[in-house]
Amino acid sequence: MGLRTDSGPAPPGRKADRGRCGEPEEAPSSSICARAGRGARYGQRAMKDERIGTVHRTQVIDLLNQALAEGHLAEPAYDSRIVAVSTATYASDLLAQVQDLPPRLQWDPRNAAPPTPPDASAGRGALALGLISVPFSFCLIGGILGIVAIVLSTRGRGAHGVGPALIGRVLGITSVVLSLGALAALIFAARS
């Protein structure tokens, strides 16, 4: 998250960036955000309000869960804040949901962890295990290899559409189903 360095109005043809409290950055210092004194909590310079992702929402939801468990929030307030967090777009939207909680339950957007990138080799590994698991599914070993392929395919996500991770997952599921069918046939043949 970068620091705001300009204090002038936005250039013509460009929308003004939203401030930390959802107001335009060129808002006067008498705004509600400035009067609340939140600028000093995160340093003397105001932070640029940036878009947030699922990782950030999850961090704030964890803080709200902790606040509810400790009795800092009533259930209706918790519910409304969870809805607001799930639809939040900017860091200021998340900050507004935890601003009245104790300091140890405050969220600092500068310390928010970036999302982890998908593991490209996991997708290829899932595909290889999926391909190997289908022929071995009749020996029941393929079911175990299929489960491993399914687990690896969840780590190889990230690319949209059909990719090695998705193909590995489908082959892994097919292998598990075939192994269960082979096991059922084996049990049925043993009882006959």
Features of the shown structure:
single chain; 192 residues; mainly alpha; 2 domains; 0% strand; disordered N terminus
How would you spell out the order of helices and strands?
HHHHHHHH
Detail the poorly predicted runs: 1-46
Estimated helix fraction = 40-55%
| Number of DSSP helical runs | 8
| Number of strand segments | 0
Query: How large, in whole angstroms, is the Cα Rg?
Result: 25 Å
Category by helix and strand content: mainly alpha
Beta-strand proportion: under 5%
Sum up the overall morphology in one term.
elongated
Number of domains: 2
Distance between the termini: 68 Å
Mean pLDDT: 74
Largest sheet: none
Protein architecture, described:
It is elongated and about 70 Å long. The chain folds into 2 domains: 1-115, no CATH class; 120-191. The longest helix has 28 residues, at 164-191. It has helices spanning 32-36, 38-41, 54-69, 75-86, 91-98, 120-136, 141-155, 164-191. Helix 3 (54-69) packs parallel to helix 5 (91-98), helix 6 (120-136) runs parallel beside helix 8 and helix 7 runs antiparallel to helix 8. The chain has 8 helices and no strands.
Topology:
Layout: H1 32-36, H2 38-41, H3 54-69, H4 75-86, H5 91-98, H6 120-136, H7 141-155, H8 164-191
Helix pairs in contact: 3-4, 3-5, 6-7, 6-8, 7-8
Quick gist of this model?
Helices cover 55% and strands 0% of the residues.
